[in-house]
Design a protein that fits this description.
The chain is mostly helical. It has one domain (55-338): ABC transporter involved in vitamin B12 uptake, BtuC (Orthogonal Bundle). It contains 15 helices and 4 strands. The chain has helices at 2-10, 12-38, 45-70, 78-94, 100-125, 129-148, 158-165, 174-192, 194-204, 206-211, 216-242, 253-263, 275-294, 299-320, 325-338, and strands at residues 153-154, 167-168, 172-173, 244-245. The strands form 2 sheets. The protein has a two-stranded antiparallel sheet. The chain has a two-stranded antiparallel ribbon with strand order 2-3. Strand 2 and strand 3 form a beta hairpin. GO terms for molecular function: transmembrane transporter activity. The chain crosses the membrane at residues 21-39, 59-88, 100-123, 129-147, 168-190, 221-239, 275-293, 299-316. It is found in: Cell membrane. Its main location: membrane.
Length: 339
């Protein structure tokens, strides 16, 4: 048994995960111990399920953001796509009277289209991802507000509501099931497929990847398109959970996703990161938010805490990269613009 455990511990996946996330795992454990002593509800089954359900929305988005950041890019439009897709899907059902399945498909396609447009402009026209996705952030948000008139739309369709509030086996929330499936798919995609190898290659050294025949343009378009789809799916699940489509939701979701990635060891310089790290990062964000809620901390203070966490994570990333991570991110963006 001990020999098998040592063999398992020496495996690349496990040792890399522990090495890259040791600090944040210690913080997570210490914060969990602190909460277990200061609040009575933290370790209850109900609260644990609630935390997993809350984490799920951020996780859908963070999975796509992981690929984007490994490429050396950033996507600021994800939160607005969440709001747009959820608002449109509910509006299509309630206002336009479209069949449920058609409304869902159209909403997901429109979110995917937003990601596709991001990818095409970034890959074909060499515009920095920061600029393109910031523009799409405003466009998607504007579409949600224009379509809904700035008002939320209520929906009580039972099947739609069950998408985000239902359970499997009467115990596990469906959003958590979606999250587990997506994590498994993305772990396989990044570690076992040629597509994953290409993503790492482009983020690690764009020029070398180009010389080696990596289809950079296709990979970039695919990554941003996939991120748009995941954001749209998050919008669907969130609208279902809230029984409504709300154009104001999604604000700050891009920051939560970025925080989860960077906390999990995904380097802003590109070429480095793992889904396991993003999962841990999302758990940290979720547990901290849940703990602050249990302690009655204002949501305004929670914004400050999240900002400090992101800053702290970037500082660690910079130190691990010998002071060059963020500057490399800027350099990669400039290189993409020139090439």
């Amino acid at each position: 048994m001990n020999k098998n455990f040592r063999t398992w511990l020496r495996s690349n996946t496990v040792t890399t995960m522990l090495r890259n996330n040791a600090g944040i795992l210690v913080v997570l454990i210490l914060f969990g111990v602190f909460l277990s002593f200061t609040t009575d509800n933290f370790l209850t089954n109900g609260n644990i399920i609630s935390v997993l359900r809350q984490i799920s929305i951020n996780m859908y988005i963070a999975l796509g953001m992981t690929l984007v950041i490994i490429l050396g890019g950033i996507d600021l439009s994800v939160g607005s796509i969440v709001a747009m897709s959820g608002t449109l899907i509910v509006g299509f059902i309630v206002t336009q009277g479209l069949p449920l399945w058609l409304a869902i498909v159209l909403g997901l396609l429109l979110g995917t289209l937003a990601g596709l447009i991001n990818g095409i402009i970034i890959a074909k026209f060499k515009v920095p991802a920061f600029i393109v996705t910031m523009a799409m952030m405003n466009i998607a948000s504007g579409v949600a507000y224009v379509y809904s008139g700035g008002r939320s739309t209520r929906i009580t369709e039972d099947f739609f509501v069950q998408i985000g509030t239902g359970y499997i086996f009467g115990k596990i929330p469906l959003p958590v099931v979606y999250m587990i499936v997506l994590i498994a798919v993305f772990v396989f995609m990044l570690n076992k497929t040629k597509f994953g190898t290409y993503v790492y290659a482009i983020g690690g050294n764009r020029e070398s990847a180009k010389v080696s025949g990596v289809p950079i343009m296709k990979v970039e378009i695919a990554v941003f398109t996939l991120t748009g789809l995941l954001s749209a799916f998050a919008g669907l699940v969130l609208a279902s959970r809230m029984y409504s489509g709300q154009p104001s939701v999604g604000s700050g979701y891009e920051l939560d996703a970025i925080a989860a990635c960077v906390l999990g060891g995904v380097s802003m310089a590109g070429g480095k990161g793992r889904i396991s790290g993003t999962v841990i990062g999302a758990m940290v964000i979720g547990i901290i938010s849940n703990g602050l809620n249990l302690m009655g901390v204002s949501s305004f203070w929670q914004l400050i805490v999240k900002g400090v966490i992101i800053l702290f994570a970037i500082l660690i990333d910079t130190q691990n990269g010998k002071g060059s991570a963020f500057s490399t991110f800027i350099k990669n963006a400039s290189l993409r613009h020139r090439s």
